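quick one: NDP bound model?
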Amino acid sequence: MTHPLFDLSDRVALVTGSSRGIGREIAEGLAEAGATVVLHGRDADRLEQTRADFAGRFGDDRIRAVAFDITDADQVVAGVAEAERTAGPIRILVNNAGVQHRVPLLDLDPADWQRVIDTNLTSAFLVGRTVARGMIERGRGKIINIASVQTDLARASIGAYTASKGGVRNLTRAMTVEWAEHGIQINALAPGYIHTEMTQKLVDDEAFNSWIVGRTPARRWGRTLDLKGPAVWLASDGSDFVNGQVVFVDGGMTVVV
Ligand code: NDP
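yep, here:
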């Protein structure tokens, strides 16, 4: 039985980038806590696979899917409208979709810099404010922006990503200062090194893998499962006075040298 503070029944959640990886796991956690979930991605086939899988477990009427590119302002407005038309007003938004691009700053093509910033940071502004307009009208809502340990820590070869995730922290604060008074809690979840498709190459790299395990007090990679509990908490009434925070879910990586 779900504790009433964490019960998300009858609440609609949109999780961007939930066709796979961390977003999929968070979407699953919210559905398990009772939410109606709108799944999202760009690749329609992949999205449909995830939708069908979720619908089989949670019921067709609690699972929707909408495909759009989060870097395109017009698609964002149309996509959010479609999500709300099929599922109802969005009470919980998780800005999760993101990309990585590993090239040193001196060699980085400005177009790739821009793509990473657009996907990881500008999208949270675009999707966030589109959804927030309705949340403000209704006087309540939860926004969870997915940050990273790179919100706090730099690592060579991922400068655009690091800048984008630092931006996510301050965007979370900027949203808080403007929207918290309307009953909306906006927080960021900052995962450590989590084993997903995005990080598969790093897991396969023996030297990098042992460096990560050694650098993490918990002595392991994170699992997507590790994000579920914190996401359900930040999406629920259990976090109603938590505003503008970055919650690191990183096995302790950011508190040690
Ligand atoms: P994945 O690469 O596994 O999944 C990315 C998701 O985002 C997919 O659903 C993808 O859908 C979607 N997506 C990417 N670009 C766009 C776009 N322009 N428009 C719409 N959807 C898009 O990523 P992870 O699960 O690893 O990462 C998810 C989030 O967590 C990201 O913000 C990432 O920065 C963050 N993170 C990840 C960590 C890790 O170790 N994996 C650590 C810290 C943070 P499609 O392919 O259909 O476009």
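The chain has eight helices and seven strands.
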